[in-house]
Design goal:
Helix 11 crosses helix 12 and helix 24 packs across helix 25. The two termini are 26 Å apart. A ten-stranded mixed β-sheet has the order 21-20-19-22-18-17-41-23-32-40, sandwiched between helices. With 815 residues, it is an alpha/beta fold. Strand 17 and strand 18 form a beta hairpin. The model has no long low-confidence stretch (mean pLDDT 92). It is 29% helix and 24% strand. The chain has 25 helices and 41 strands.
Length: 815
């Protein structure tokens, strides 16, 4: 069990301990959103390229944390009731500590790396092994420089095997992971393009990943990847267990694929073994074969029929709008102690509703007896201040009830469904956390606000990635304002604002007062500027702690009246300059009058001055952009020279941040870039949203027949036509009709045929075999960029995003 005194930590990591050196630490926390009520937890103030954990120490102290791991030379508050570990590098020292702790685990550790499939292989191995032996594995996708040591903390000699993921994105990272993990056996899953931008060649990336296995006893890999095979053969003192589909492979494998499953035949010690898996795609077949050879190498004997029960691995939480102002967090795919803990942390970080409900199934966990397991879960529930618990399953009804007798307990999901009408769910956030066999999706369906199966899936991890990319373009002292107007460009307001608030953006910006009020009512406390305050709304705006953009004298006149009526109150405002947009803002000749009128109002404070660039994304307008910036500097200097306090300035938008880095002034405004559109580095930004639907109908149509209204498409061959339940009322532009637009199905692009209807569209699937009712259809996303759709109809991605109707259900995913 991981447990060190503060003095021991300092000694093992060449650090300094200030405070109670005898205090035992059993928990490490890196997420500043978590509350603390345990003295045995320590917060790691990790300094990264784009964020600094030391900035969160005061917040963590307010939440109850009293132990901090900090870095020499950093600014951080000193609390008399807190203990500190001071290191040259917090992350390096933490890794050093876990390198020592790993030595205490005497059983085999299997490490997995590769471009894809790491988490699936790990979860499938756990599923296959757990009935025969005890296994501890990395939570979710904890495979980074921080995730790996957190995973290693779980190692305990009561488990017979450990399974750890290892992922890298840059050169020289794997050596640190290898030093910590010291794997006994390795799996190199495959190689692809992920993170390729940080390597000069794919060969360099393979060589870097192979460092993980330099001291392993055995390495499992597919020799069909020639680059992996070549690099693996450079390892000394490592037994290579390779397999492949070609006749020259060390272990020859074959796969017979049908509509619903695949029968795999693999050789081991010159003996063939056959098993079936419920998957037909190439990646799943490879992952299952890796699992087979891992089991043989570890000497774990299982009934091979278990392969046919391999589960779908959900690597993310889903957040959905529920009825009666509820928020639903759906994590009903697996249930073990570590995943319960992670899900409860995520639940605790949601601030829209103060009331929190947990619906939890029996927890599938080996290595702990039931009393120990459920008493630990009860401690977590109390730690995260869960208001209501609904337990489902025979084990949880017996054991958790002992420690939380006030919960509601049921033997099965079917019984809960029968009693569901007796529960009142209102103004609360509800976490569904359950093993797959409990089918909690039936309960989720009862509560979700929308059941329309066309959905916009929003990836919150991608939002953080994009934010961090643009932050990397900024000077250390430059602040950042995020545009969250228009329902966050169609992606959803609160959910995105909440994660931005956690990541300590300096300002949020909305278009209208109602948008700002909605965020305030949802628990958002970050400063919010209202870009277009409507007439008569200023008083209400200030009541909700919002700050107006004053862009003309009419709005200023209304502000004067409000200030005169409340002379004891101070009002913070922002002023917009028109430097060439010809939309909103004061013009150069109006500046003297503006200064005079504001100077006459003693209870106004100008927080910032800003303007809007017209064409910062296009090099042909660079001369005009520089003229705008020059004019902005002149106009704002006049104002700043007229007031005795500092005033911030900002003019750069998303494209400006990338292309005009020398003109950041005090703050920048990030809009479309956050949502995945970069005009300079499109390969760096990640698309945050995927618009998806499904096949709701299929029919074969003869040659020379028409499809859709007004007979706009006439078929030129016998065709198979599928119907998808999305139309122009959902935001699918009618200009995409009749072969202009395309969608993805089974990974291939097919055309939209006929005129798009209000609630449906038709697609030609003639050339795609085996399409079935319910198959997923992608309209835009990672593999079909939204810019491709916008280009086809002669518009911009902003319009496509903001046109997606509210009736399309938003699902927020977080890995």
């Amino acid at each position: 069990m991981f447990q060190y005194s503060l003095a021991e930590i300092a000694q093992l990591t060449n650090s300094v301990c200030e405070g109670n050196g005898n205090l035992k630490i059993t928990k490490i926390q890196t997420d500043s959103r978590t509350s603390f009520d345990e003295i045995s937890a320590i917060f790691l103030a990790i300094k990264g390229v784009r964020s600094n954990g030391h900035d969160f120490i005061s917040d963590m102290h307010d939440r109850g944390c009293r132990n901090f791991w900090v870095e020499k030379g950093e600014n951080y508050p000193i609390f008399s009731d807190a203990n500190y570990i001071i290191s040259d590098s917090v992350l390096g020292a933490f890794q050093q500590l876990l390198t020592e702790y790993r030595k205490s685990f005497k059983n085999p550790v299997l490490a997995i790396t590769g471009s894809n499939g790491k988490t699936i292989i790990k979860e499938w191995l756990y599923f296959l092994m757990k009935q025969e032996t005890t296994v501890v594995r990395s939570p979710r996708s904890y495979n980074s420089q921080i995730g790996v040591p957190l995973s290693l903390m779980l190692l305990d000699n009561k488990f017979k095997y450990g399974i750890i993921e290892a992922g890298i994105s840059e050169v020289n990272e794997m050596t640190r992971l290898q030093t910590m993990i010291q794997p006994t056996i390795g799996i190199f899953s495959n190689i692809g393009d992920a993170h390729q931008q940080h390597f000069v060649s794919i060969e360099q990336k393979v060589a870097e990943k192979m460092v993980l296995f330099k001291n392993t006893e055995s390495l499992i890999y597919c020799s069909d990847y020639a680059i992996i095979d070549s690099e693996a053969k450079k390892l000394s003192n490592t037994k290579l267990i390779s397999w492949g589909f070609n006749k020259d492979a060390q272990n020859i494998v074959s796969a017979k694929v049908s509509d619903v499953n695949t029968i795999i035949t693999a050789n081991w010690n010159n003996k063939p073994y056959s098993f079936s898996i419920p998957c037909t795609d190439k990646a799943s077949i490879e992952n299952a074969i890796h699992c087979f050879y891992a089991l043989q190498t570890l000497g774990v004997c299982i009934n091979l029929e278990r392969f046919n029960e391999l589960p779908t691995v959900a690597m993310r939480l889903e957040q959905i709008a529920g009825r009666n102002n509820c928020v639903i967090i759906n994590d009903s795919y697996n249930s073990d102690f570590q995943s319960v803990k992670i899900a409860l942390q995520f639940l605790h970080q949601q601030h829209k509703n103060s009331s929190k409900t947990l619906v939890l199934s029996d927890v599938k966990q080996t290595g702990m007896n039931f009393d120990e397991l459920y008493s630990s879960i009860a401690d977590l529930i109390r730690e995260y201040s869960i208001n209501r618990v609904i337990g489902v399953g025979k084990d949880i009804s017996k054991y958790l009830k002992r420690y939380l007798p006030t919960g509601n307990y049921f033997k099965s999901t079917e019984v809960v469904l029968q009693k569901f009408h007796e529960f009142v769910f209102q103004n609360e956030t509800i976490l569904f956390k359950g093993a797959r066999e409990f089918a909690f999706e039936q309960l989720v369906d009862q509560l979700q606000q929308q059941t329309h199966q066309t959905v916009l899936e929003v990836n919150l991890n991608a939002i953080v990635h994009n934010l961090n990319y643009f932050r990397s373009c900024l000077n250390a002292k430059t602040k950042i304002m995020i545009m969250v107007k228009a329902f966050c460009y169609g992606n959803g307001s609160y959910e995105i604002a909440n994660i931005l608030q956690h990541n300590k953006v300096d300002y949020l910006a909305v278009a209208f007062v109602d948008e700002g009020i909605e965020l305030r009512n949802s628990g958002i406390t970050t400063p919010i500027i209202v870009m277009n305050p409507e007439y008569g709304m200023l008083s209400k705006l200030f009541d909700y702690g919002l700050e107006p953009n004053i862009h003309n004298f009419a709005v200023l006149d209304e502000l004067k009246q409000l200030c005169a009526s409340n002379p004891d109150k101070s009002y913070t405002i922002h002023l917009k300059m028109d430097t060439g947009m010809a939309r909103y803002g004061f013009q150069p000749q109006q500046i003297p009058q503006l200064i005079s009128e504001i100077q006459a109002i003693p209870n106004i404070h100008i927080e910032s001055l800003f303007s809007h660039l017209v064409g910062s994304d296009d090099a042909q307008f660079d001369t005009f952009t520089m003229e705008q910036i020059s004019l902005f500097e002149k106009m704002t200097k006049q104002i700043m020279d007229s007031f005795p306090y500092p005033i911030m300035r900002h003019i750069l938008n998303s494209a400006g941040i990338e292309r005009f880095r020398g003109y950041q002034f005090d703050m920048v405004r990030l809009g479309i870039g956050l949502y995945g559109i970069s005009f300079v580095n499109p390969q760096v930004c990640q698309p945050i949203s995927t618009l998806k639907t499904f096949v709701s109908g299929i029919r074969t149509m003869p040659n020379n027949t028409s499809v859709g209204y007004s007979r706009k498409t006439i078929l030129t061959r016998e065709s198979k036509i599928a119907v998808i339940p999305i139309g122009y009322a959902d935001g699918l532009n009618r200009k995409l009709s009749n072969g202009v637009g395309t969608v993805l199905i089974h990974g291939k692009e097919v055309p939209i045929v006929g005129n798009i209807c209000m609630d449906a569209a038709m697609i030609d699937i003639t050339d795609i075999p085996d399409v079935k009712l319910g198959d997923e259809v992608i309209l835009f996303g990672k593999d079909l960029p939204i810019t491709k759709m916008s280009d086809k109809i002669g518009t911009i991605p902003y319009e496509v995003m903001t046109s997606i109707a509210r009736r399309v259900k938003r699902i927020y995913v977080f890995e």
